[in-house]
Specification:
Length: 387
């Protein structure tokens, strides 16, 4: 996987705009917004080019609980290949958790809260922020449900600093990254891997940790779904019913926010999604206005449940939620009608179209990404954390 990506990167031009196919042009004519195939090229910032050594280091770090305060949680704990690099829980259990998938629970006694929001997949996260014309600036890529940081390099460090995700209560946020650096420098294997990846004996640094993790995440790519093949000219890639579902998707107005190659405008929208009772408080999102980022619609088959609170279990439930919302039914009692995004007024999700739209969304699935898991990690800890 990494080798093929490196070959792609050798011919990659930083601007990834691409010529639209005839089918894309037709979709542009039929809809105000564009849906498009993902690029075959893998974007990366100029100060962090993809290399085999960096990607391999990032992969080991991603699965190694050495990055967590109590050495019990890895990035892969909540972003596991078996669940499409997401998780099948409404809200993740990070620190002080044990078990895998639906069996994961807190150890007893426990004073750690659930992770605040549903775990998003990192498959294709390399394309976060991609525009409808294919242009993308990796250094400005929007991250998280509330857009609180930009770029994969910065995103990769945030869970390590967050108490309920990876840090725990024993180490403060102010010193956790320095403590992780001490661990990595003391580990002879990691010390050598950083040197090989970054070319210096002083390469173990917070900045390079972010770069290594980001590089690995850029190798987790699924850009050849049946939908992508169809737009690239394979007439047989979609069935008649799936094409009808694509038309219904555009007609319904879903495309107003779920557009571009990632089927996301990467903007904040207030929809009044119900809170998750496990939090014990109302999640008010960005700037306490209940705005949350439009998620991608790619690879949804493996990433249920849905929405930032994880309260919608199936795609049918999601579309029924929008059908109700278009009828002025707001599920979150703390959100007023005046707060709801004005684009909702143009939404027309009809019950008769739901099955067709769900069938179309299935064409966005592509499980050809790298799912391999290291047999061991340099720390000697359990791969993936306490799962």
């Amino acid at each position: 996987m990494v080798k093929s990506l490196l070959l792609i990167c050798l011919v990659f031009l930083f601007s990834i705009g691409c010529k639209k196919s005839d089918k894309e042009e037709k979709l542009v004519e039929e809809n105000e917004d564009i849906i498009a195939a993902l690029p075959l090229e893998i974007p990366f910032p100029l100060d962090n080019p993809i290399t085999k050594e960096k990607a391999e280091l990032g992969k080991l770090l991603f699965f190694d609980p050495i990055l967590s305060g109590n050495k019990d949680v890895a990035c892969a704990t909540c972003h596991h290949p078996e669940f499409g690099f997401a998780e099948n829980l409404e809200l993740s259990i990070g620190v002080n958790g044990h078990g895998f998938g639906s069996k994961r629970a807190f150890k007893s006694p426990n004073t750690i809260p659930f992770v605040k929001r549903n775990s998003q997949s990192i498959v294709n996260v390399v394309f976060n922020g991609i525009k409808q014309d294919g242009n993308l600036d990796p250094s400005k890529a929007p991250m998280f449900w509330d857009l609180r940081v930009e770029s994969l390099e910065k995103q990769a460090l945030e869970p390590i600093k967050t108490m309920e995700e990876m840090r725990g209560k024993d180490i403060s946020e102010e010193i956790i990254l320095d403590r992780i650096m001490e661990r990595l420098r003391e580990n002879k294997v990691y010390f050598g891997l950083f040197e090989r990846a970054f070319g210096s004996k002083n390469s173990v640094s917070i900045e390079n940790l972010g770069k290594a993790l980001a590089t690995y995440q850029r190798t987790i790519v699924a850009n050849n779904s049946r939908f992508d093949k169809y737009l690239r000219g394979d007439e047989s890639a979609l069935s008649f019913n799936e094409i009808e579902g694509m038309k219904a998707f555009g007609k319904s107005g879903c495309i107003a926010c779920h557009n571009g190659p990632m089927f996301s405008d990467f903007e904040l929208h207030v929809l009044g999604v119900i809170d998750n009772e496990k939090l014990g408080f109302s999640d008010m999102g960005k700037d306490n206005k209940y705005g949350f980022r439009t998620p991608s619609l790619r690879n949804l088959r493996l990433t249920a449940p849905y929405m930032h609170s994880g309260k919608l279990k199936t795609l049918k439930h999601v579309l029924e939620f929008y059908e109700d919302l278009a009828g002025d039914v707001i599920t979150n009692p703390k959100v007023k009608a005046s707060q709801i995004d004005p684009k909702i007024s143009k939404l027309k999700v009809n019950f008769k179209d739901i099955s067709a739209i769900v069938e179309f969304l299935g064409t966005l699935n592509d499980e050809s990404y790298d799912k391999t898991i290291p047999k061991k990690v340099p720390s000697g800890l359990k791969v993936g954390g306490s799962i």
